[in-house]
Each structure stands twice: as C-alpha cells, then as structure tokens.
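Repro:
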Amino acid sequence: MQEKRPLVWLSAASIDKEPYSALLPQWSIHRFDLTEPPPFGLTGAGKARVGVLDLSIYPEQGTPYLDQWIEAFQLPYWVGILPSAPRQNTPPGTLISRHCTDYHTLPLDPDRLNTVLGHLWGMAQLQHQADAEPHDSYQEVALEGASQAIRQARAMLRRFAKTDEPVLIVGENGTGKDAAARFIHAHSSRSTQPLVTVNCAALPVSLTQSELFGYEKGAFTHALNSRRGRLESADGGTLLLSGIDELVPEQQSAILRFLQEGQIERIGASQPKKVDVRVIATSARPLKKLVEAEEFRGDVYYRLGSLEVQLPALRDRPEDIPLVANKILANTHSPFGIRKLSNKAMQSLALHDWPGNLQELQNRLRQAMLLSESAMIEPTDLGLAELALSIPGQSGLSLEAFRARADRQALSCSLALSHQNVSAAARILNISRVSFYRLMDKYGPHSHPSHSKPLRNHH
C-alpha cells in the first residue's frame, strides 16, 4: 500500500465541515488553525512539500499570524482555496496572490485539486533531492539559519519572488548574494526558465554591448555568425547582474534602455526586440552612497532599487555559525575522512568577527580539514589559536552567551529597520515597549550600532 503523503492544511478553526474529505485516500492531512500563532518548535508535517491555504471562510479577526505560519513551514508551494474568484484589493485575494502558486474555488473539484497538489509535490520533491546533493560551496547554505537577521532576509526574498520587479541585493563580500538571487528565481513563476548570470567585474567595457545584447552576422570584422546576447538568452527568465557596483558609468548606460523599455537591439540590427526578462542585481557596496559620490548613475539605481534587500554579515548572526559550519563540513570532501569541530573550535568560530563572512568560514574549514591530524578540528587548525586563548574553558561561550549575542543582534536589527523608532522596533520583535527598554538597559547603550544618535519613540 502506498504511503500517504503529508499535506499541510491551514484554515480558520470556525470551519465546521471539512472540505477535504475527498483528499483523504491520497494525503495525510495535517490541519492547523491560522487564527492562532504557530507553536514554538513546530514539527508537525515535517516532511510535507506542499500546503493548502484555506480562506473559504475568512476569519473575522483577519490573519495576523499568517506570515508566521508561512515562515514556520517554509514550504515551496501553497495552493489557495476561496469561496469564489478573488477580487483585487481584498484581503483574501491579496493573500492568495502573495503566497500561493495556484488557487481553487468552492465547490472543490477533488480530481483537479489532487492533480495540482500531486504536480507541485513532484516538483518540490525533485528540488529537495537536488538540494540534498552535496555542494562544494558556501553559497548553498548561505541562507540557512534561525537568527532573526537571516529569517527576515529569507522572508523578504520570498516576497520579492512573487513579483517581476527588478531586485537589488546588497551585502558584504561572502554573504551569499548569488545564493539569494537563485533563491528568488527558484521561488518565482520563472523558475522553469533560464537564470543567466553576468559577472560584471569580468565584463570588459569594449564587449559590454555584444555580451548583453548580441550581434548580427557581419556587424563587425569577426562577426562570422549571429549571436544572442545574455539578455536575449534570459528571455522568459531572469538575468543576474552579479557585482553591478563594478560597472563603470559607460556600462551602466548600456543597460539603462533595457531597464526603461524592456527592449534590446543586437549590434548591426535594424530593429529593437522586446524581451521578457526579470533583472536581479547584486552589490557589495550600497549603491545609494555610490550615487551620492557620483560613481553610479542615479537613473540606473532607481530602476533597480525599488525592491532592495540587505543580507546580514556573518558577525551579525553568530547563532547561525554552528549550523552553517557543520553543513559546510558535511558538504566538503576530505581525503582523511569526516572531521568534526571541537567545543573550543566552535567557540573560536563564534568569537571571530568574520570580515570575509561565509567565504572566509568555508576557506578556514577547508584548511582545517587538510591540516588537522586527528578526527577533531581544533582552533589552531582554523588559524584561530589566539581566540582560543581567550576562552576560559569549555563553557567559555555558553548557551547564555549565545542568547545574549542573539538579543543584542535583535535589538540592533530592529532599531536599524525602524530607523531608531523604539515603538516600531518593539513591534518588529513582537514585544512591548517596556520589554524593549528592559533589554536595552540590560545590554547597555552599545546594544545597537547607532547608539550615539537619540532614539525616537513615536506612538
């Protein structure tokens, strides 16, 4: 007998008659009440690949916890259920548009719903199997972790994936910007279409036009055949401009017309051509500051920067280091067998400030796997012996120390996101203003990066 596949069914508890009885032979239904907050450490339906967002009865109190449920399950696909076709600018229609790949209306057609769920399950299962294959790159684990900083970044990337607007991803070198771009593409409606990457740092000025737009046969001396450019190759999919801050103004001008009109023109062609391409750009430097310094074109920035996300540096998410480090080790081949990190090595990793971020972490771990003469990696193998000397004992970085770092980071991130507005920062953390001030008193004025600025408390 074929094992039932788990299916998350998220609906209001007020629904009396279950509309999914026809699905029971094929699915193991795990129902949750979207009008209540998700429980801490949610483990139900852990192997589910798809979920149903049932808004056939919209709760009177709205859906204040829906984003928390979506984040808790992290399912690649949701299917919506509505009493009738969704209307624009209504809460149910907006939620279905934001979160769901497909939707169905009452009365349900069980065969059609089963077909759609089965198709999405198959797609998600293939993606899961691909993700489970070992990858020799920190980019594959860059977005993993439970810290507030990386969860907020993931949630923003997931929201951006629902649109076709250009996205700008900003972050220090080694934070996983290309991984974030692939995440957006993979979770978008363009996921089955090509993702074409342009390494802007390696793009010569003289070849910018031909690389991006292509050329016709005979357009210049060595143009023996016609050639598609990167934008045309990405038609229907996504173009990733990796390191756009490396482009000189002349190169920036080359992409401006496409950003404005969605058209390209091959060198030597007589007519422009319309292409359907979603642009994602990454930058190691804040483009707004480059615009102010007149090092980057403002018109290009404003076309790209309507949707912008900042990836956190590794030093700003220290609680994620054990998970990420162990996954990098598991994904890295060692000629000497499996290596594990000692307690002191893990503490040294947590104490380091990581100027090179995840890329530096990967490099140090690879070095350690080659240098370590035992099954256990020590701080000296990581090149962090000096930090190890500052650890008083095996409990030098205790659970309480990790929690304190996490609390400080939560304060810092929420204040940055709210532009130093204490009331807004407290709402971001879902705590009272009194609790927020109590945490600030506990960790002192240096618990956020702009402690020299006066805090605003707008009600």
